[in-house]
């Protein structure tokens, strides 16, 4: 069984690195990354334990203002959305909240949304508490996970959790 998902990602804290950390040189060989230029496009394929294959098509606009007007184009028809912030930066958490509101306005009904606190390896420099982020995610019907692109902590779990929550295609 296969499934393909378009995933727009608003990145204020390391999504490109997160996606690249799931490449063959990272800790798991299950995910593969291909990077393109521009508003970065990444394609990832993941095999779940039940033999379901999920292909992620990820658009990373890196939270750049020059792509803000185009953002709704990425949201339309997307099955999932990843919003990344830097746990050491309250400003990036505020920006993440803005992008969550944009997704809620322009995203597909039933979109799977995840809030990702990146740079978990810098816990001594933390400025955004895990509890605050968890509470925000729950209030906005998102799931929350903290990752470290540097150490690859929870990178595969992020994509696995999204894949598990995606609707499965129905047999015709």
Automatic annotation (TrEMBL):
Residues 1-26 have a biased composition (Polar residues). This is Ras-related protein RABF1. It comes from the Eukaryota. Residues 1-27 are annotated as: Disordered. PANTHER family: PTHR47978. Keywords: Nucleotide-binding. The keyword Nucleotide-binding applies. PROSITE patterns: RAB, RAS. The keyword Secreted does not apply. GO terms for molecular function: GTP binding; GTPase activity. It comes from Zea mays. InterPro entries: P-loop_NTPase, Small_GTP-bd, Small_GTPase. Signal peptide: none annotated. Pfam families: Ras.
């Amino acid at each position: 069984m296969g499934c393909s998902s378009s995933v727009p990602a608003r990145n204020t804290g390391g999504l490109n690195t997160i996606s690249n950390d799931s490449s063959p040189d990272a800790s798991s060989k299950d995910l593969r990354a291909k990077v393109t230029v521009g508003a970065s496009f990444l394609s990832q394929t993941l095999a779940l334990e039940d033999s379901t294959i999920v292909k992620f098509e990820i658009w990373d606009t890196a939270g750049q203002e020059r792509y803000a007007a185009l953002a709704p184009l990425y949201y339309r028809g997307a099955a999932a959305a990843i919003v990344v912030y830097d746990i050491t930066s309250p400003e990036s958490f505020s920006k993440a909240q803005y992008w969550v509101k944009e997704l809620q306005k322009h995203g597909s009904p039933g979109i799977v949304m995840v809030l990702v606190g990146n740079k978990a390896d810098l816990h001594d420099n933390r400025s955004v508490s895990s509890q605050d982020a968890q509470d925000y995610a729950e209030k906005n019907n998102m799931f929350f996970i903290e990752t470290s692109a540097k150490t690859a902590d929870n990178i595969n779990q992020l994509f696995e959790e999204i894949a598990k929550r995606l609707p499965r295609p129905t047999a015709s």
